[in-house]
Amino acid sequence: MITLDGLTKVFPAPGGGDPVVALDGIDLHLEPGRVHGIVGRSGAGKSTLIRCLTGLEKPTSGRVEVDGTDIAALEGDALRAARRNIGMVFQHANLLDSRTAARNIAHPLEIAGVPRAERERRVAELVELVGLSGREHNHPAQLSGGQIQRVGIARGLAAEPKVLLCDEPTSALDGSTTRQILRLISDLRERLGITVVIITHEMAVVREVCDTVTLLKDGKIAQTGELVDVAADPHGPLSSELISLPPAPTGIDAVIVNCDYGDSTRFRTSEDLIRAAEAHGAEATLVAGTIETIGGRQVGRVQLALRNASGAAISAESLASYLAELDAAGVVAKEETA
């Protein structure tokens, strides 16, 4: 559905300094009918990427193909027609205060010259689809934050696009409303078969709704793949952010070992790690951990306190053997303190 081939965007620096490379040779293919998350810190290139996807920015080089059309090669009427296949949802819906929810949803259809009867039919469908029945005649000041975002989603779907781009769609919402909006996005994908791209810095959003994820860093792809594979890869840069390790209790008289697991055939649970420690003459206690089930696979990061049977510190030899076994099985393990 979306293919980026060698996408590069370079901005000239003001005052004649070194140019700014916002995107540096991005190669990415997104399958139709899936939810794809694009994450990265500020300055990673996320906003430039979404502007290139919508044709608001022309790439310095490379292709931006959406549903078989190279957006970067289009101008004028052809570009405007191609954009109808791309719906947009923003962090702030920026609704027109003078218009009701229904008329805000109808606004892009009016601009496109859709006849009134067809507009009203489409708006009625969308009001029901996004769960706003009974609120369609309310103005923005009479709507909650979640309802306003539902209007924004309906407006983005008005022209029946094949791709829905969501730029930080939940950043301005509380936790409960965020979950409702994410469930709505997931439901829309299932019901409409639409491809969804979510630009976000919130890992909870990625865990909740995305099928695949891409990490941008300094304008390049640092990691990309199926969410479950990315989360289960303890060597990858996204694993620790998708599954964060809470602070461990202080003052523990033991060797503390951090373990990242999930892709090993042997170590699939924290209990497996504890049993392996016992086989090397250590008593292991779980002192901190985060365990998630993603795509039916359990992945996690845990902190173990290792002692011998008498409660004394585990021997250096036993610790080395235990860590070597974990390493051989693909579990990332690091000794923290003694």
UniProtKB/TrEMBL annotation:
Family as reported in the entry's similarity comment: Belongs to the ABC transporter superfamily.
Keyword annotations of the record: Amino-acid transport, ATP-binding, Cell membrane, Membrane, Nucleotide-binding, Translocase, Transport
Subunit: Homodimer. Forms a membrane-associated complex with FtsX.
CDD domains in alphabetical order: ABC_MetN_methionine_transporter
Molecular function GO terms recorded: ATP binding; ATP hydrolysis activity
Protein name: D-methionine transport system ATP-binding protein
GO cellular component: plasma membrane
InterPro entries: AAA+_ATPase, ABC_transporter-like_ATP-bd, ABC_transporter-like_CS, MetN_ABC, MetN_ABC_transporter-like, P-loop_NTPase
Function of the molecule: Part of the ABC transporter FtsEX involved in cellular division. Has ATPase activity.
A GO biological process held by the record: amino acid transport
Domain ABC transporter: 2-243
PANTHER family in the cross-refs: AMINO ACID IMPORT ATP-BINDING PROTEIN (PTHR43166), METHIONINE IMPORT ATP-BINDING PROTEIN METN (PTHR43166:SF30)
Organism: Brachybacterium aquaticum
Lineage top rank: taxon: Bacteria
PROSITE patterns for the chain: ABC_TRANSPORTER_1 (PS00211), ABC_TRANSPORTER_2 (PS50893)
One Pfam entry name: ABC_tran
